[in-house]
C-alpha cells in the first residue's frame, strides 16, 4: 500500500516536471478578459515551438487552474497529436483534477506555478 502511494507521487512529480519544461519551451502569452460561455480559451499554432495566446476570465475561474487547464490541451496536442475537443476535454479534466491535488500538497510547487503564470501575463494582471 505504501509502495503504491510512493509510486503515484513519483509519477505526478515526473509529470509536473514535464509540464514545467513544456511551459518554458512554448511561447505563451496570457491575458485576463471577460469570456462567455467559457472560463478560458487559447489559440495556438502547432510548430516545433508552439505559439499560444491564452485568455482567462478570472471572474469565473482561478488564474493558475485555468492556465494549467489550457496548458494541458496544448501539451496533449503536442505529445499525442490533435484530438477533437470531444475527446480531449475529458482527458484534460481527468488529469487536471489529480495534478492540482498533487500541486496543492506542496507550497513550493504552487509558488513555482504562480510565478510561472505571472511571467506569461501581459499588461500586468494580478
Ligand atoms: Zn478545456
Describe the structure.
This protein is an alpha+beta fold and 126 residues long. The protein has one domain. The chain is 60% helix and 14% strand. The protein has a three-stranded mixed sheet with strand order 1-3-2, covered by helices on one side. β2 (40-45) and β3 form a beta hairpin. The site of zinc ion has 4 residues, from α2 and α3.
Poorly predicted sequence stretches spanning 5 or more consecutive residues: none
Spell the H/E element sequence: HEEEHHH
Q: What is the domain tally?
A: 1
N- and C-termini, Cα separation: 42 Å
Helix residue percentage:
55-70%
Query: Structural class of the helix and strand makeup?
Result: alpha+beta
The total beta strand count reads 3
Query: How are the strands of the largest sheet arranged?
Result: 1-3-2
Associated small molecules:
zinc ion
Shape: globular
Indicate the mean pLDDT. Answer: 90
**Percent of sequence in beta strands:** 5-15%
Radius of gyration: 15 Å
Main pleated sheet: 3 strands, mixed
Q: In DSSP terms, counting alpha (H) and pi (I) runs of 4 or more, how many helices?
A: 4
Question: What order do the helices and strands come in, and which of them pair?
Answer:
Elements: H1 2-25, E1 27-32, E2 40-45, E3 51-56, H2 63-80, H3 85-104, H4 107-120
Bound molecules: zinc ion.
Zinc ion is lined by residues 69, 73, 89, 92.
Amino acid at each position: 500500500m505504501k509502495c503504491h502511494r510512493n509510486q503515484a507521487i513519483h509519477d505526478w512529480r515526473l509529470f509536473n516536471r514535464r509540464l514545467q519544461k513544456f511551459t518554458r519551451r512554448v511561447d505563451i502569452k496570457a491575458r485576463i478578459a471577460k469570456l462567455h460561455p467559457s472560463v478560458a480559451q487559447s489559440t495556438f499554432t502547432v510548430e516545433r515551438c508552439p505559439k499560444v495566446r491564452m485568455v482567462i476570465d478570472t471572474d469565473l475561474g482561478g488564474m493558475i487552474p485555468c492556465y494549467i487547464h489550457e496548458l494541458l490541451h496544448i501539451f496533449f496536442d503536442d505529445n499525442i497529436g490533435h484530438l477533437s475537443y470531444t475527446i480531449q476535454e475529458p482527458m484534460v479534466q481527468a488529469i487536471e483534477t489529480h495534478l492540482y491535488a498533487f500541486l496543492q500538497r506542496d507550497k513550493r510547487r504552487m509558488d513555482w506555478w504562480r510565478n510561472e503564470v505571472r511571467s506569461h501575463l501581459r499588461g500586468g494582471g494580478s
